[in-house]
Amino acid sequence: MLLAQAVEGLPPVTGGDDLAAVVAPALRELVWPDGSTGVAEGDVVVVASKVVAKAERRLVAARTREELEAAIASQTVRVVAERPRPDGSTLRIVQTPQGLVMAAAGVDSSDVPLGTALLLPEDPDESARRLRRGLDARLGVRPGVVVTDTVGRPWREGVADIAIGAAGVVVLQDHRGRRDGYGRELRMTTIAAADEIAAAAELVKGKADGRPVAVVRGLAHLVTTEDGDGARVLARSAAEDLFREGSAEAYARGRADARA
Amino acid sequence: MLLAQAVEGLPPVTGGDDLAAVVAPALRELVWPDGSTGVAEGDVVVVASKVVAKAERRLVAARTREELEAAIASQTVRVVAERPRPDGSTLRIVQTPQGLVMAAAGVDSSDVPLGTALLLPEDPDESARRLRRGLDARLGVRPGVVVTDTVGRPWREGVADIAIGAAGVVVLQDHRGRRDGYGRELRMTTIAAADEIAAAAELVKGKADGRPVAVVRGLAHLVTTEDGDGARVLARSAAEDLFREGSAEAYARGRADARA
After folding, report:
1. What confidence tens digit (pLDDT) does each residue in B145-157 have?
2. How far apart are CA B245 and CA A231, in angstroms?
3. Nearest CA distance, A51 vs chain B (angstrom)
4. Between these two residues, A217 and A175, which has the higher pLDDT value?
5. Which of A151, A232, A247 should we substitute to test contact with B (largest number of B Cβ atoms within 10 Å)?
6. d(CA B75, CA B68)
7. Which value does ipTM take for this structure?
8. Which are the contacts of B100, defined by CB distance < 8 A and separation ≥ 6?
9. What are the pLDDT digits (tens) for A101-152?
10. Third-level CATH fold of A3-58+122-259
11. B 99-138 → A contacts, CB under 8 A
12. What is d(CA B243, CA B153) in angstroms, rounded to the nearest whole number?
C-alpha cells in the first residue's frame, strides 16, 4: 500500500533558513491511517525545489526583462530549442548546469517577491542529502528525500513533477535481467522511480496551496541507507539523447532550405 | 491522504475477455486501511494498456523482423525521430493514430506469446469508458478509470507510466486564474493529473509482477460523473509542439551540411 500526504502548517521559507529545522516540527505532526505519527524509516520526504531554492538564497533581481533573461542565461549551458513568443520574448528550452532540460532554465518568477526570480538549487542532490542529514539529526530517522520541480514535456499537454534531487532513494529501479511470463528478458527495464515518486507527491501537494512538502510511505524497497547517486543520473547525457539536436526532419528541412 | 494499492489475484487476460468481468471480483477483495473493502466512488482504477489490448485482441503476428516492422508501420502516422541501432534495426520514435509519441509505436513484444506482438488499444479512451460502464454494472460504483502505458522521455533516463486512456478523470487539472502568494497569476497552471495518477499507480503495480491493475484512493476531486474528454487531450497536437520537427540546431546542421 502506498500512502502519500502533504505536510500542513509549514511556515514560509526564507533565505538562510535551515530547511530541516523548518520542516521537522511539521513532519512530527503527521498522522497515518494506522494511528502512527511522524516520519518513519522507509518513508520518502518530497520537497518542492522552490522552498529549497528559497532557503538557499537563490533569489536574484529580475526587475526588467533584461535582468530576467540574464538570470536565465546564467543557468543555461546549452540551448535545446527556441521559439518566439507572441509578446516578442523568446521561449527557450535549455539545459541547465544540473543537466536538466527545462523551459527558461527552471528560473521561476511565480510566488516570489515582485522584481525577483528564483534559480534552481545549485546542486539539488546535495540539497537532498543535507535535508536528509538534518532530518536525521532532528527526528532520529533517515527517510529518503526527493527534491522536485515542475516541467513541461515534449508531445504532452500539461506539466508534471519530476525529481531533480534525491538522497537515499533508488532513482532508477533496474529490472534488467527479469523475465516476462514467456521467459524473455523485459524490454522496459529501468523505471524512473524517483520521477514517479515526485508525480505521486504532486497529487497531494498541489500548486499554490502553500504545501511544498509531502511524505510518501510504502516504498521502503526504494529507500536506501546510503545516499546514493542522486537524481543527477536521471538527466540523460546529451551524447545519448535522440533529441539533442532535434529530429531528422529538421535536419532534412535545413538541407532542403539551403539548397532552395 | 492518497492511497494506492495493486489488485492481487487477477487471472491472465486473453483475447475476447470482458475486462470488467475479469477485474471486478478482484476489486471486491481490496482491503483499505480503514477496514473498508472494494472500490468506492471517487476511486480511480488504473489498468495497464497491455491487458486492455490483450482483451481487445490486439495481438498480431511478428514471427520475423519484417512482420514486426509492418506492425509498427501500421501504427505509425508520423516518424518523429529515428536512429540506427547497433543490431542493424532502426529505433523509430513515432506518432501513433492515438496521437501518442512513442518508440516503436507502442508495439510491445514482451509478455506476449513468441512470434507475436501487441498493438496499443485502438481507442484507449473508449476502452476506459467501456471498463467504467462494466464496473458500474458489476459493482454499482463508477470509479474513474485510467489506462496506462510505459514510455521513455526525451532528456530523461528511465521510463515512466503515462495515461493513454481515461474516463471520469480530470486529466488536465486547470489552475489558470489562481494566484500566487503575491497576487500574480500562476505560470505552471495546467497539471497533467492523469499522467501523475498513472505514475503513482506504477509504483505499486510494478513491472512483470502480474499486477496490471491498481486502485488509487483520495483523489475524489479529480473524479467526475461524466466520462469527459479522456486522455486524448494530453497528446499535444503536432502543430503546437516545439519538438515536431526537432530543434533549430538540427535545422542549422542540415543547412550547413547542404552547403558544404
Report:
1. 999 999 999 889 9
2. 29
3. 13
4. A217
5. A247
6. 11
7. 0.91
8. A155, B106, B120, B149, B151, B164, B235
9. 999 999 998 889 999 999 999 999 999 999 999 999 999 999 999 999 999 9
10. 60s Ribosomal Protein L30; Chain: A; (3.30.1330)
11. 100-101, 108-114
12. 12
Q: Is B175 on the interface with A (CB under 8 A)?
A: yes
Asked whether the beta carbons of residue A246 and residue B250 sit closer than 8 angstroms, the reply is yes
* pLDDT at res. A174: 86
Pairwise CB contact (< 8 Å): B203 & A192:
no
Tell me which chain A residues have a C-beta less than 8 angstroms from the C-beta of B160: 191-192, 195-196, 199
- Give DSSP secondary structure letters for chain A: -EEEEEPP-PPPP-TT--HHHHHHHHHHT-B-TTS-BS--TT-EEEEEHHHHHHHTT-EEE-SSHHHHHHHHHHT-SEEEEEEE-TTS-EEEEEE-TTS-EEEGGG-B-SSS-TTEEEPPPS-HHHHHHHHHHHHHHHHS---EEEEEEEEEETTEEEEEEEEEEEESB-SSEE-TT-B-TTSPBPSS-EE-HHHHHHHHHHHHH-SSSS--EEEEES-GGGB-SS--S-GGGGB--GGG-TTSS--HHHHHHHHHHHH-
Chain-chain contact of B190 with A159 (C-beta, under 8 angstroms): yes
With cell 493513454, the residue in question is: B164
d(CA A237, CA A40): 35
Q: Residues B213, B51: contact at Cβ < 8 Å?
A: yes
Which residues sit opposite A61 in a β-bridge? A116
- CB proximity list for A37: less than 8 A, separation 6 or greater: A28, A29, A30, A31
3-state SS, residue B231 = helix
Class of domain B59-120: alpha beta
Annotated domain spans of chain B: 3-58+122-259, 59-120
Of B83, B159, B200, the CB nearest to A200: B200
Identify which of A82, A208, A242 has the shortest CB distance to residue B175. Answer: A208
Q: How far is A133 from chain B (nearest CA, A)?
A: 26
DSSP B184: P
Q: Give B109 to chain A, closest Cα distance, Å.
A: 8
Asked if A246 lies within 8 A of B243 by C-beta distance, the reply is: yes
What's the full length of chain B, in residues? 260
Task: Indicate the average pLDDT of chain A.
Answer: 89
Helix axes B193-205, A193-205, angle to 10 degrees: 130
- Mutation site, A157, A171, A182, interface B, largest B CB count within 10 A: A157
